[in-house]
């Protein structure tokens, strides 16, 4: 279980949510075919960025649904989530 803290726009307080990464589901993966791959994660209101920038995009290579899911879990568990 990972804790994710969201800072919604125009509010002073943060919203904390628990994310069960063992049962994480991606609704969609969006690849702009230039430099960013993002994902819509079930239970999170905004898309998260999986890979961004030339180096990360190249490192993602030919991603699969499983590698995208693994990356989402890695980012959420590390607390290093960036939103699209």
Quick take:
With 84 residues, the chain is α+β, with helices and mostly antiparallel strands. The protein has helices spanning 54-60, 65-78; strands at 2-6, 15-19, 26-31, 36-41, 48-52.
Mean pLDDT: 89
User: From N to C, what is the helix and strand string?
Assistant: EEEEEHH
Instruction: Identify low-pLDDT runs.
Output: none
Number of domains: 1
Biggest sheet layout = 3 strands, antiparallel
Strand content: 25-35%
User: What structural class do you assign from the helix and strand content?
Assistant: alpha+beta
Large-scale geometry: globular
What's the tally of helices? 2
Rg, nearest Å:
13 Å
Q: Roughly how many Å apart are the termini?
A: 23 Å
Word description of this protein:
This protein is α+β, with helices and mostly antiparallel strands and 84 residues long. 25% of the residues lie in helices and 32% in strands. It has two helices and five strands; from the N terminus they run E-E-E-E-E-H-H. The two termini are 23 Å apart.
Summarize the SSE layout with pairings:
Blueprint: E1 2-6, E2 15-19, E3 26-31, E4 36-41, E5 48-52, H1 54-60, H2 65-78
Give descriptors for this structure.
3-stranded antiparallel β-sheet; 25% helix; single chain; 2 helices; 5 strands; alpha+beta; 84 residues; globular; two-stranded antiparallel sheet
């Amino acid at each position: 279980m990972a804790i994710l803290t969201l800072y919604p726009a125009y509010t002073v307080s943060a919203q904390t949510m628990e994310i069960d990464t063992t049962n994480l589901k991606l609704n969609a993966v969006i690849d702009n075919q230039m430099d960013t791959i993002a994902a819509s994660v079930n239970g999170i209101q905004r898309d998260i960025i999986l890979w961004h920038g030339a180096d990360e995009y190249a490192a993602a290579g030919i991603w699969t649904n499983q590698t995208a899911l693994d990356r989402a879990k890695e980012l959420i568990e590390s607390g290093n989530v960036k939103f699209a």
